[in-house]
Design a protein that fits this description.
The protein has 230 residues and is an alpha/beta fold. The protein has seven helices and eight strands. The protein has one domain (45-217): Rossmann fold (3-Layer(aba) Sandwich). The chain has a five-stranded parallel β-sheet with strand order 2-3-4-1-8. A three-stranded antiparallel β-sheet has the order 5-7-6, with no helix packed on it. β3, α6 and β4 (163-168) form a beta-alpha-beta unit. α2 (47-61) runs parallel beside α3 (77-90).
Length: 230
């Protein structure tokens, strides 16, 4: 935001932090610096890196549906989710980036304290769960909580009212219950490829090329290089 001050004021014409935007960032679960991620944060020019940049811009512009990214460490899966979360906060949308074990702990907190994490996870506009396959699906209660979460968000996603992103190092299809996993790959959540370049990760559907909502991310490290002296 820019302050409405006299031309001679030292802050005239200078961008200032937006107080309400800061509130959304503080509630997002993003750490310092992560709220500045965008598609330019993805380095490299391989097909997968081009696809990741596309996904950030696509979901930043249209934050609804389901997206699942899984694959090797260091391939910028979490960075993509953080960048989309950050974009949502800049639009003053309620967004939350959470690790799976923290979600599981918060479900339990709701049973013993006056907290409402379960409701927040079900209703927030953008929800990211990282390391989703570490959720204890062998526990019937936890599995039920997860199924109910996906079911609630699936309905609002179809109405283009919510976006859910899952991140995993392993194939979620081997851990997530089959009925739940099938919803993550629903055809309603494919995104049309709008770039001129082709990409081997695209699928030919409905007379065009689309990005599926479940993407296996492989390849070289796509994270930005950090100066160790800063």
């Amino acid at each position: 935001m820019v302050l409405d001050v006299d031309r001679n004021h030292p802050q005239f014409g200078k961008a200032q932090p937006c107080p309400s935007c800061t509130k959304y960032v503080e509630q997002s679960g993003l750490k310092e610096g992560e709220a500045n991620y965008d598609s330019s944060s993805i380095k490299g020019n391989t097909e997968i890196q081009q696809l990741l940049r596309f996904l950030i811009d696509e979901y930043a512009a249209r934050p609804y549906g389901f997206l699942t990214l899984w694959g090797d460490y260091g391939t910028a899966k979490s960075m993509v989710a953080m960048a989309i979360t950050a974009a949502a906060t800049r639009k003053r949308m309620r967004a939350r980036y959470e690790h799976a074990k923290e979600v599981e702990r918060n479900w339990l907190r709701d049973t013993t304290a006056e907290t409402s994490y379960t409701e927040m996870y079900r209703t927030i506009q953008v929800l990211v769960i990282d390391e989703v396959t570490t959720i204890n699906m062998k526990n019937d209660w936890v599995r039920s909580q997860f199924s109910e979460l996906v079911d609630a968000r699936y309905r609002t996603a179809l109405e283009k009212q919510s976006l859910t992103i899952f991140i995993s190092q392993t194939d979620p299809g081997s851990v997530v219950p089959g009925d739940v996993f099938s919803r993550l790959g629903d055809g309603a959540f494919y995104r049309k490829w709008t770039k001129q370049e082709s990409n081997q990760l695209l699928v030919d559907r409905w007379g065009g090329l689309y990005v599926p909502p479940i993407v296996h991310v492989t390849g070289p490290d796509a994270r930005p290089y950090r100066n160790p002296d800063k």
